[in-house]
Amino acid sequence: MKVHGMGKDERCGWVGSEDIYVAYHDTEWGVPEYDSRALWEKLILEGFQAGLSWITILRKRDNFRAAFAGFDPNTIATWGEDEVLRLLSDSGIVRHRGKIEGAISSARAWQAIEAESGFDRYLWDYVGGAPLQNTWASLADVPAHTPLSNAISKDLKQRGFKFCGPTIVYSFMQAGGLVNDHLVSCFRYKECAALGAVKPAEIAVL
């Protein structure tokens, strides 16, 4: 799919025409993420996206980061009703009490996993330490969720995470590069596959 006047480059068909959307696809989506905090941020934002379009979250992401203390789970884990009320009055984010309270609960759950094994290690162990490489030819081939995302979702919920159903978890896996779901016709497919071949030693040694 040719988008946004980028010449011969082909992109996944879900990419919108806005600069922020194109940049997200071209530089971020599908890139393997190994930082615990950054992984948590991606998962929380996917949860806020539920029922909305992703472009809505992208437009508000800077506001989210400011409102949520840079998505520092150690800070957010200490929050209570005062912070919930503050966030509910912030028009720069998605104002949904359940999702806000869910982020606080998920921050506390992140702390437990981080102390136990590292949130990054916890997630990457599910895929053997390296991104799963799919070979989808069209958007119709790409699943909304998989048995693996179902399993991760179930465990996250048991540990106290909220708004992390199988579909949200799979979207998170795609965004965080745990799975390479760029279409094979997309110019980013091979680039992300190459990035997935190089991983930190602490993740590689399982």
Number of domains: 1
Strand composition percent = under 5%
Helicity, as a percent range: 40-55%
**Mean model confidence by pLDDT:** 93
Give the CATH architecture: Orthogonal Bundle
Please give the count of helices.
Answer: 11
Describe this structure in words.
The protein is mainly α and 206 residues long. It has one domain (30-204): Orthogonal Bundle (Endonuclease III, domain 1). Helices cover 54% and strands 2% of the residues. It is built from eleven helices and two strands. It has helices at residues 19-27, 36-49, 54-67, 73-76, 81-88, 97-116, 119-125, 147-158, 166-175, 187-196, 201-204; strands spanning 132-133, 179-180. A two-stranded parallel ribbon has the order 1-2. Helix 2 runs antiparallel to helix 6, helix 2 (36-49) crosses helix 9 and helix 8 (147-158) crosses helix 9 (166-175). The longest helix is centred in the middle third of the chain and has 20 residues, at 97-116. 34% of the residues are buried.
Q: How are the SSEs placed, and which strands pair?
A:
Elements: H1 19-27, H2 36-49, H3 54-67, H4 73-76, H5 81-88, H6 97-116, H7 119-125, E1 132-133, H8 147-158, H9 166-175, E2 179-180, H10 187-196, H11 201-204
Helix pairs in contact: 2-3, 2-6, 2-9, 8-9
Short description:
With 206 residues, the protein is mainly α.
